[in-house]
Amino acid sequence: MSSESLVLFFIVGVVLVGGAVLFSHFVAPSFSKSPAKFEPYECGIPAQGNAWIQFNVGYYLFAIVYLIFDVETVFVFPWGVVMKEIGLRAFIEIVIFFLILGLGLLYAWKKDALKWV
Amino acid sequence: MPFNIYDFSGTTKAVDQFLYSTMSPTWAFVVELAIVGIIILLVYAVVGLYLVYAERKVCAFMQNRVGPNRVGKWGLIQTIADLIKLLMKELVVIRKADQLLFNIAPFILIIASFMAIAAIPFAKGLQAVDFNIGVFYMMAVSSIGVIGTLLAGWSSNSKYSLIGAIRSGAQVVSYELSVGLSLLAVVIFSGSMQLSVIIESQANGWWIFKGHIPAIIAFVMFLVASTAEINRGPFDLAEAESELTAGFHTEYSGIRFAFFFLGEYMNMFIVASLAATVFLGGWMPLHIGNLAGFNHVMDFIPPIVWYFGKTVFIIYVIMWFKWTFPRLRIDQLLTLEWKYLLPINLVNILVIAFIVLMGWYIK
Fold first, then answer.
1. I want to staple B155 with a disulfide (CB 3.0 to 4.6 A). Which of A45, A114, B98, B233 is the partner?
2. Do A12 and B131 make contact, defined as CB atoms within 8 angstroms?
3. What number of other Cβ atoms are within 10 A of residue A43's Cβ?
4. CA torsion A48→B168→B337→B322, rounded to 10°?
5. Residue B311 CB coordination number (10 Å)
6. Do A77 and B245 make contact, defined as CB atoms within 8 angstroms?
7. Nearest chain A Cα to B174, which residue?
8. What is the pLDDT of residues A51-88, one digit of tens each?
9. Residues A85, A82: Cα–Cα separation, whole Å
10. What does the alpha-carbon distance between residue B331 and residue B352 come to, in Å, rounded to a whole number?
11. Contact status of B346 with chain A (Cβ, < 8 Å)
């Protein structure tokens, strides 16, 4: 099958989830309309405030370091495919590439960017 | 119709020709899609439900219990009964939640796992889509699932869900790197990203044996990183029951909850089959170099049995992790990735490049 048929897998996923949820709407009972039921769970006490707050994510720096390394992975995959054919030159280039990247990781490490706060 | 348990490409071709010879091309295409869709749906449902059962049995075995044994023989239809029960449960939607995102989240999770299944080679000729960038595609698609997790946590408007989702996000993006780099090891060895080519390249031995120690390191790294990526085992911080109730799916009920549960097990199946395909030869029987007699005996076992055997073995190992190691803290988790796995992986890639350069691996 060609890659266009990936749409099929998308459709099957939609049909499975959508169908089951729709079916559940018909067979599942809904008795109680008590307002407490539709509150978010918080250990049984009434929920305090909203959860959509400004959250100190703490992994802002992780996200940046991740971005660098993820782009690097994307770069390195095509290199991996042709590594065998090119040989020595590819090896020297990847050593230089990884040295620069390693320095970057070392810098982030020393700056405590890899520490969860 | 030719049917050969050792090679399915004849069967699929025969079905294709039969359909195109009996009806117009448009209809044949539609019927073909319908057949594949139904097969995939069935495989998905059976694998998902029986993985849940397997998990409960393995867990019971490790904790010296019996596990489910009442519904059906050995409790075999326990999960089907559970599914029916969950279907009949009320779907509660939190009034303060973002209704649209709350409803979309399970769709994204399940669709991502369906798209990943599309590229898995189950046996020779039994692969829906054979990309020339298969490994890359699997990585890309399987990481879409985390968007579902994040949406579920954020849209629920509950603090537990939010914390679970944020943790899951940090964890998945971090471990994504190690998954990619350890798969790169085999891409360098085999010189291709196409899954079927990678499997063919293991005809005289699996990469875990042919690639010496670096390949074994890459395999172990892949197991650890992918266990973290699917939020399982000692890394299940996103749904840490003891602290976050149920993490990102706290507010989900009924069948929507079931889909999050199913999605987790299907992700486990996907990473296990990726590990089996890339490191352990997929459906390729165990071959040792030029030992013709031994190879011939191994060829008698059908490829699909080999594929499922390896996948189930890796799934068992991942379950084993879960029931033996205590859960990590979030800072330990990130330290493990950034200060141990990632540097080891980078060095490992260089070692593999050197080995390939010198030709020191078994070709």
1. B98
2. no
3. 7
4. 100
5. 25
6. no
7. A66
8. 777 766 666 777 788 888 888 888 888 888 888 888 88
9. 5
10. 30
11. yes
Q: What is the interface size between A and B, counted as CB pairs within 8 Å? A: 208
Listed by number, the residues of chain B in 278-317 with a beta carbon closer than 8 Å to a beta carbon of chain A are none
Question: How far off is chain B from A81, nearest CA to CA, in Å?
Answer: 4
Torsion of CA B302, B307, B312, B315, to 10 degrees: 170
Domains of chain B by residue range:
91-358
Q: Which residues 29-58 in chain A show a CB within 8 A of chain B?
A: 29-31, 35, 37-42, 47, 50-52, 55, 57-58
Q: ipTM value of the model?
A: 0.84
Cα–Cα distances in angstroms (integers) from residue A65 to residues A42, A112, B109, B304, B342, in the given order: 34, 12, 26, 41, 12
Q: Kindly determine whether residue A114 and residue B339, on different chains, have CB atoms separated by under 8 Å.
A: yes
CB pair distance less than 8 Å for B166 and A55: yes
Distance (Å, whole) CA B203 – CA B190:
12
Listed by number, the residues of chain B in 177-206 with a beta carbon closer than 8 Å to a beta carbon of chain A are 177, 180-181, 184, 187-188, 191-193
Is A12–B40 a contact, with Cβ atoms under 8 angstroms apart?
yes
Q: What is the pTM of this model?
A: 0.89
pLDDT at residue number B330:
80
Assess B43–A contact: CB distance below 8 Å, yes or no: no
B103 contact residues in A (CB cutoff 8 A): 21
pLDDT digits (tens, 9 = 90+) for B293-331: 777 777 788 888 888 899 999 999 998 988 888 888 888
**B107 Cα to chain A: minimum distance (Å):** 6
Say yes or no for a CB contact (<8 Å) between A6 and B96.
Answer: no
Count CB atoms within 10 A of the CB of residue B107.
20
Note whether B62 and B324 are within 8 A (CB): yes
